Amino acid sequence: MPRFAANLTMMYTEHAFLDRFAAAAKDGFKAVEFLFPYDFAAAEIKARLDEHGLTQALFNAPPGDWAAGERGTASLPGREEEFARALDKALEYTAVLGNKTLHVMAGLITPEQSRERHRAVYVKNLELAANAAHTLDITVVIEPINTRDIPGFFLNRQDDAQAICEEIGAPNLKVQFDCYHCQIVEGDLSVKLRRDMKRPHAGIGHIQIAGVPQRHEPDMGELNYPYLFDLIDSLGYDGWIGCEYRPKAATSDGLGWIKPYLQRA
């Protein structure tokens, strides 16, 4: 049965960030994820998780200068030392918050830059990340993202992400399968889920959902999520499914789609 994590970066934005944990728990969520925790002390977030009986499912490693438009440093030549420091900081937070999955963003590439050079840096940095996380029992995930939302993002396709993971061959390096991004770039989600769920030396380490094309609730748009949830169950996925969408109105008012799953749980 699907297990859902509320994404507190996109959901419950009618509340201050630290108050979103209580709001998610009140609505029946048992887990949360978010983009970045670094504006708050790890102990402060952990206290909110414990107070409301929530599991931390996922967050992202520091992405560089987000306010200036950066979207990760893992593939950026010349930023290797910064990436290593960011990884250390992220792993310090995982040790406190207890999540076993960490997303590392690839970063941006311009048309005149060498894709081969970016890929070589990306592979080297992911090897470093997987090795460092392995001793802490952490799975590192990489996410293909569509270039409509993030123009110039380095990693866009599921097969490219799986190939990188297979090349590195680390058991704790997997792909973050975001149904929203995959539908925009490639479509054919059910075939890709079947193909990739249990690949050796790769596979799917985390799943996220949103309605397509507007990134609202998953009961809006062109994807048949009840079918996909049943398929994901049948494939043996037992991780969290992150609800990384922007509610069309107040978050709680748009949760009719999830109530049958929460009631069954």
Automatic annotation (TrEMBL):
Pfam family, one: AP_endonuc_2
GO molecular function: hydroxypyruvate isomerase activity
InterPro entries attached to this UniProt entry: HPT_OtnI_isomerases, HyI-like, Sugar_Epim/Isomerase, Xyl_isomerase-like_sf, Xyl_isomerase-like_TIM-brl
Active site: E143, E244
Location of the Xylose isomerase-like TIM barrel domain: 21-260
Keywords: Isomerase, Pyruvate
Segments traversing the membrane: none
Keyword Isomerase: yes
Any single GO BP term: glyoxylate metabolic process
Family: Belongs to the hyi family.
PANTHER family: HYDROXYPYRUVATE ISOMERASE (PTHR43489:SF13), ISOMERASE (PTHR43489)
Protein name: Hydroxypyruvate isomerase
Organism, as annotated: Caballeronia sordidicola
